């Protein structure tokens, strides 16, 4: 048969790229002895943080928790645009977005319901930590974009946004530290991946199972927000909250050291000029 030289000849058969992606385990109880990435149930993923990654923003930060990656930009404080929004207390706005390529299945450019819910949850976690009374007639805008989604995206977004706000010089009562956990009966899984989240949430209604994210301010020992999903027994929930707060305490020095390093680099840049 004659071939069309103006077109690239593709193979006659092909496979979907999703065929090669690992699937979530069907039973979260199997994770008790050996998790998919080799961690034990109480172990968190390695954390990488860097501040000042976006030169055009007032403050910015980047976070990696293994395969969960997010970036945050903070703009403001700047004058409120609309007169009806005038207030002697400043305003904080949060926008949480997934990049179109962040998940296995391509996401839409428009903000979906999940992203809107996560934006509200992130705002509730960050707002108590910001001294908004110091910024009358002003607003501070926080934009978080998830570049790769592998679980615990809300806690990653809160950590990244908290560091970005501090790097922007916004006055805060304390840094907001967030951590997540998945629960299945008596099993608590710290810092779950997306496969573990799907496995646990698929068992909702078949026992005590669900997800929990806690936002905590360690210096003043206050919880700024708690978000849960699923059906969880009170005793299990109470025990998991204490575990997650302990995890937040462990993450606190990492954010402090990252912020100190960013300030030292900023000083060196100013002195060299």
Automatic annotation (TrEMBL):
Keywords: Cytoplasm, Exosome, Nucleus, RNA-binding, rRNA processing. Belongs to the RNase PH family. Residues 43-171 form the Exoribonuclease phosphorolytic domain. It holds the Pfam family RNase_PH. PANTHER family: EXOSOME COMPLEX COMPONENT, EXOSOME COMPLEX COMPONENT MTR3. The keyword rRNA processing applies. The keyword Nucleus applies. This is Exosome complex component MTR3. It is found in: Cytoplasm; Nucleus. Residues 1-24 are annotated as: Disordered. SUPFAM superfamilies: Ribonuclease PH domain 2-like, Ribosomal protein S5 domain 2-like. InterPro entries: ExoRNase_PH_dom1, ExoRNase_PH_dom2_sf, PNPase/RNase_PH_dom_sf, Ribosomal_Su5_D2-typ_SF, RNase_PH.
């Amino acid at each position: 048969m004659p071939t069309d030289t103006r077109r690239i000849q593709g193979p006659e058969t092909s496979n979907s790229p999703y065929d090669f992606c690992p699937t979530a385990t069907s039973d979260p109880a199997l994770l008790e002895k050996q998790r998919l990435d080799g961690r034990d149930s109480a172990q968190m993923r390695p954390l990488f943080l860097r501040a000042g990654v976006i030169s055009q923003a007032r403050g910015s930060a980047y976070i990696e928790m293994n395969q969960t990656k997010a970036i945050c930009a903070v703009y403001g404080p700047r004058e409120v645009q609309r007169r009806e929004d005038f207030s002697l207390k400043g305003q904080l706005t949060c926008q949480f977005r997934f990049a179109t390529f962040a998940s296995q299945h391509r996401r839409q450019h428009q903000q979906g319901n999940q992203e809107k819910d996560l934006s509200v949850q992130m705002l509730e976690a960050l707002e108590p930590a910001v001294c908004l009374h110091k910024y009358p007639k002003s607003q501070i805008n926080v934009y978080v974009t998830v570049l790769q989604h592998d679980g615990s995206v809300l806690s990653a977004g809160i950590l990244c946004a908290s560091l970005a706000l501090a790097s922007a010089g916004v006055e805060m009562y304390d840094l907001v530290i967030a951590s997540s956990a998945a629960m299945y009966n008596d099993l608590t899984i710290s810092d779950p991946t997306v496969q573990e989240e799907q496995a646990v949430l698929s068992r909702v209604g078949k026992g005590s199972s669900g997800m929990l994210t806690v936002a905590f301010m360690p210096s003043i020992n206050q919880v700024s927000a708690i978000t849960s999903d699923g059906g969880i027994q009170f005793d299990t929930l109470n025990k998991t909250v204490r575990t997650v707060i302990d995890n937040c305490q462990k993450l606190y020095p990492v954010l402090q050291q990252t912020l100190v390093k960013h300030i030292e680099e900023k000083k060196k840049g100013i002195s060299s000029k």
